[in-house]
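FW: tagging you since you asked about this chain on Friday. Here's the raw sequence from the shared folder, copied in full. Didn't touch anything.
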Amino acid sequence: MKSLLKTLFIIAFLILITQTIRHGYQRWFRPTISVLDRFEETLKGDIKKAKSLDELVRKYEDVHKKVTDYEADKANPIIEPHEKREKEPYKSEFTVKEAINDWEAKSREIHELRFYWTCGLLLVILGYLVFFKRNRWAGISLLIAGFAEIIYWTSPSFIRESSVEFERLLTNKFIFSVLSFILLLFVTSGLKILSNGSNDEKHS
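HL: got it, structure written out here
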């Protein structure tokens, strides 16, 4: 059993330490300025600078009104559905709508991260107690399930357009990855996984 625990510890250790470093880099050290930024469309620049979802909603209201006014004027040419993503005023509406969807997706991911990480923590605590009080194999199963949940939900996210909400997501993932690493070390110390003694005899 001790060999199994050591193997699982090494795997969890490598995953958590590497993804924590990555989160830190992406949050604080990743270059975010490009020489092409000065050629960027004003709307996309405004979207990147948005500090809240309300700002994006107000921007969407403005561009949506332009679409409504455009469609109300019968003198304007009809734009085919497959052309709307490339022609104004529909292009701006699609751009802001995608930014809002991305912001909301990041907000949901932050909520899910906090909820499922907490579930993983409870499984780890339960597994730790069961290991010593009831059954070591049941305890190990709960510990594995708990850390699997924790590692999955603190894993890196795919990067799209950078936004304030994305930066907040990275901050959350970095913090929870650090907490996960500390939790792993605590559990490892408590189970004496890396000691020379054997837990098998103690808990048989």
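FW: Residues 90-133 form the longest helix (44 residues).
HL: agreed, and DSSP finds seven helices and no strands in the chain.
FW: great, closing this out.
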